[in-house]
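Quick one:
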Amino acid sequence: MEIVDTKKLEIAILYLQRITEGHNPVNNMPVEDDSVINNPNVVRCMFFVKDVLEELKRNDGYIGRRPYTNKDNSKQDYPLDALQDYHYTDDKSITKFVEQLNGLADMTVYKKITYNHITTWLKEKGYLDVDPGDGNRKKCTIVTDKGREIGIKSELRKDARGMELILADPDNGLLVSDNAKEKDSEKYILPAEVERMFRGGYNVVYYCHKGRRQYKAWIEYLSMMFERIDDAKPAVLTYHKGTQRSYVFLIHKKDFQKYRGIIDTFHSRWYRLFSEEYTEIGDVTREVTEAPFVVKCSDGAEVTIEKRADGKIQIKNSKNPTTYLVLDADQFCRRVWMY
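Output:
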């Protein structure tokens, strides 16, 4: 078993992160578009190496299986006598309750009480139960009548601090059905969950990735929630370096102008890394106002340049029909004249 210098490991990860972002790893300045650093094959390799090194860092620098240590092995069990000093002040979430209990004893000497310790005991004694869910709901823990009798309650917390945008970051993106019992469904967000958030008054953005989907299937997947929630204003931002990752926005009409401005500002600064995906649900600000200009490249690809109603310039490439590039006038001139 061998251990790696963690300081050198962190520097290597930092340099790789800069390379994957299209920057010089030493001075962190953006490189030219034709630099080898921006070569897609090089970028994919750098992402792979960075993932490997980050996994090594999570393993505390050990190559291979790390030696097993039980950090709590030398600690004593939580002293029940400490509970005599507990005083009820107000209702708390279970995580805050656990924090309060652990604050009654010296955690350098005693083992911590955990959330799982308490919920497991409550389930064994009949104060909590598990709702297996159905086609529209995932499995969750619920309070029983016996639990309510002693003051345990559950609640769905909504917008307590003026929140108006919810970011959903599931492992695998959006499930194509509302069947919460499908295999690995816990790694997805259900369409019904997205719709419930939007109908609750929130703007929603969720993560998804193209995977092995072909063009038609990908467009249908991106457009699925826009067709289901036809009053939502759409936007899709896609990160193309390494594994393609997309962020799908469903925005309320009253908020669209504000978020459209935020997305455009973000895109103007990060256009080297992100593009907007095309969906079949458009918006009047993106309508083409003049006849397009088409250039045929030597490799057979056709590049179409269009002016939109919002004044921006839209560029499409027939070899990559799922995406298009949107630039303002200054960005377009910088690309053409390299100044």
